[in-house]
Every structure is written in structure tokens, then in C-alpha cells.
Amino acid sequence: MREPGRDHWRVVIDSAGVTVSHGSHSTFIQALAPQPIELTLANALDQALAKQVDSSWWRPKNKVHLSIGDELLRLWMTPPPVNASMPHDCLVAAQERFESLFGLESSGWVIVAQWSALEPFLCAAIPHGLVDSIHQACTDRKLRIMTMVPRFVEHWNRYQSAFETGDWFAAIGNERLTLATVQQSGRVIRSLQPGSVKVLSKPLESQADAYQWLEQVVILEARRLGNVMPTRVLMCGAPLTASPQKSSTSRSIRFERLETLHG
Questions:
Q1: 110 with 131: CB under 8 angstroms?
Q2: Any idea of the CA torsion for 30, 33, 35, 39, to the nearest 10 degrees?
Q3: Strand extents, DSSP E, the chain
Q4: Which of 29, 35, 140, 174 is such that its CA lies 20 to 30 A from the CA of 226?
Q5: CA-to-CA distance for 81 and 100, rounded, in angstroms?
Q6: CA torsion through residues 108, 110, 116, 117, sign
Q7: Which domains does the chain have, with CATH numbers?
Q8: What is the pTM of this model?
Q9: With contact defined as beta carbons under 8 Å apart, do 56 and 75 qualify?
Q10: Going by C-beta distance under 8 Å and a sequence separation of 6 or more, which residues neighbour residue 94?
Q11: With left for phi above 0 and alpha for psi between -120 and 50, is residue 242 left, alpha or beta?
Q12: pLDDT for the residue numbered 199
């Protein structure tokens, strides 16, 4: 995925609020409770666009790239349907998988995916109300939505070339940890292991050593998947408390920040 340039608006929406930016200029509007989260974020988005876009002395092209926090959506892997003959078969399989995993009606969600009839594909479901609010706010200002992706997918597209055989991937958001294992295709790792994407509650900030908590999560997930324990977990996103060097549960697991590796 190409990074948004200076001639594009970048909008980040998560449970904390909405950030609208271009270049070095940005506006953050906090999402205030106790309104329903979709209404709260819709109001925050409208305020952020009004403050940043409407009042900007310099207006870039009317193109918007949106990043959606993982805590606002659902992520999962869907096996390819047997004897699929058309794209709709993949959508039906994703809907059935969504309802089975989360116990929710798929009709209330917009499902997007890297559709494939040959291999398991990553899916994301965004609430209809949130998608409608985003489209309405952008339409009111004649802004064209170029991309709308989960934060996890944004991180994966940016950093996937850094992974080596046996690595795990941890994307940390405001309220969620999205954990996945990767698999190798030829000599290059480019895909996520089937069934491995899992969104978990992030440890409390007051916890003394979040890396110890993360190690425990990795151990349990490795057992669940029947995988060999990883020797390295590559991380990105929000910082965790304590230091990866101080973790003591399993010193064979090394934690590294992707932002540091990529500079």
C-alpha cells in the first residue's frame, strides 16, 4: 500500500478519537462518552474535518486515506470455499465464518477482504453505521476516499518484508493487541498463517511488565495453533510498559520494534 503523500488527507479513527492530518499539520478530536461509539466517532470526525479541512489555508487534493483502529472492527481468516465459481462464493464463506466466530449478524457489517478462491484470505468487518458516517462526512466536503483499511493491515503492508521464517507479528492499538503468525512462500514471507489472526484485549497500563503478559499470550497461542514457539516477535504500534529485555517468562522469545528496524 502506498503511503499517503502531502497532497492527500490522512484520517486515523480509533476508540480514542479522530486525527486528520496532512504533512506536519494535524488535528485530533477526542471521542467523548457516553454516546454510542459510532455516533461519538461520527461527531469527532465531523469536527476534525471542519477544523482541519474547512479552515485550512492550503488545501491538498481532495483525496483521503483512512486507517481504522482494530478495536472498532473484526479481523479473521476465512478458508477458501470448496468449488467456488464466482466472487460471491467467497463473500458468503466470509459471512458464514464471521457469524460463526463472533456470534453476530453479518448484515450489520461491511465485510472487505483480500478475496481468494485458492488460499485462506484475511477479512475485516466494519460496522455499517461507522462506514456510513465516514462516507457522509467525506461527501459533505467533496473528499474522495482512496483507501479505508484496518490499522493491522496498514502495519502488515508496510512491514511485511521485515519478517523471517518463524517470526510472529504483534500490532498494538489503543485497546487491542492483534497477534498473527506468518508463513513463507518460496523464499519470501508474504502471507498470514490460516487461523492465526487473533485480536485480544491489551494489558492494562498499570501492569508492571506488559511484555511478560505478551509472552504468556504467545505461548498460549502457539499451543492453540500447534505451532513451534517463535524465537522472535516483531511489534509495532503503541508502546507497552516495561522493557522487552526485562521479560523473564521465556527468554528464548525476543521482542523487537519494527519502527526501529525500519528506521
A1: yes
A2: 20
A3: 9-14, 17-22, 25-30, 63-68, 74-78, 109-113, 121-127, 144-150, 168-172, 176-185, 188-192, 198-201, 232-237, 254-257
A4: 174
A5: 15
A6: positive
A7: 1-157 (3.30.420.380), 163-262 (3.30.420.40)
A8: 0.82
A9: no
A10: 78, 111, 113, 121, 123
A11: left
A12: 72
pLDDT the model gives residue 211: 80
Q: Residue 228, Cβ neighbours under 10 Å: how many?
A: 9
Element containing residue 90 per DSSP (H, E) = helix 87-102
Question: What pLDDT shows up at residue 166?
Answer: 80
d(CA 218, CA 233): 9
C-alpha cell at 123: 477479512
C-alpha triplet 218, 221, 222: angle, nearest 5°: 85
Burial class (CB in 10 A: 0-12, 13-18, 19+), 234: buried
Residue 1 pLDDT: 38
Cell of 222: 502457539
Q: Where are the alpha helices (DSSP H) in 141-209?
A: 151-159
C-alpha distance from residue 241 to each of 196, 257, 263 (Å) = 25, 13, 21
Q: What is the length of the chain?
A: 263
CB atoms within 10 A of CB 47: 17
